[in-house]
Amino acid sequence: LYRKLETGQRRVVERLQTEMHDAARLNEVLKSITMKTSARNQLRGVVTRVQRGAVNADVVLDVGDGIEIFANITREAVDELGLKRGREAVALIKSSLVLLSPDPGIRISARNRLVGTIASITQGAVNCEVKIELAGSRTVVAIVTREGLKELGLRKGSPCVALVKASHVLIAVND
């Protein structure tokens, strides 16, 4: 199996080399294949809708169990990523961009409202990491101040809604 994988990898690299005359560009492509990200929240799903505007587009990603993620990205990014209905993608959200509320009915402009239960809280000197369990054993992590956590009365086991603006969601795809 190892030898077959090694042979297959060699064929892919050779094909890329013949298609890409610029060695630096080939190196960039190969590095991007193995890219990792610091975004704590990575939700895999399928694009269900792309609505193009004059500059940006709204992309809706179904991550399962009735959870949808809304992203507002440039039209250029939609084209470069090949985003269309049925395309698999990953929503990336930095934990520092996730707002929390104990009130699921809160009125706020954030399009993403991820309702769940606080699974854990890790206390820090200034900030706390709050992990919220969503439907289907998915989790969303938020970083909030200790003061904010106390003011909201958030505790392990309590209901919570994670709020994220659509413009704070990045979309990634595998080629």
Give the strand order, joined by hyphens, for the main sheet.
3-2-1-4-10
Largest sheet: 5 strands, antiparallel
Class computed from helices, strands and strand pairing? alpha+beta
Total number of helical segments? 4
The number of strands is 10
Order of helices and strands: HHEEEHEEEEEHEE
What's the multimeric state? single chain
Shape: globular
Assess the beta-strand content as a share of residues. Answer: 35-45%
Radius of gyration: 20 Å
Average predicted local confidence, pLDDT: 90
As a percent range, the share of helical residues equals: 10-25%
The low-confidence runs, each spanning 5 or more residues with pLDDT under 50, are none
How would you explain this protein's 3D organization?
The chain contains four helices and ten strands, in the order H-H-E-E-E-H-E-E-E-E-E-H-E-E. The chain has helices at 2-19, 23-33, 75-81, 146-152; strands at 41-52, 56-64, 67-74, 88-93, 99-101, 112-123, 127-133, 139-145, 159-164, 170-172. Strand 6 and strand 7 form a beta hairpin. The mean pLDDT is 90.
Nutshell version of this structure?
With 175 residues, the chain is of the alpha+beta class.
Topology:
Elements: H1 2-19, H2 23-33, E1 41-52, E2 56-64, E3 67-74, H3 75-81, E4 88-93, E5 99-101, E6 112-123, E7 127-133, E8 139-145, H4 146-152, E9 159-164, E10 170-172
Antiparallel strand pairs: 1-2, 1-4, 2-3, 4-10, 5-9, 6-7, 6-9, 7-8
Write a concise keyword list for the protein shown above.
10 strands; 42% strand; 175 residues; alpha+beta; 5-stranded antiparallel sheet
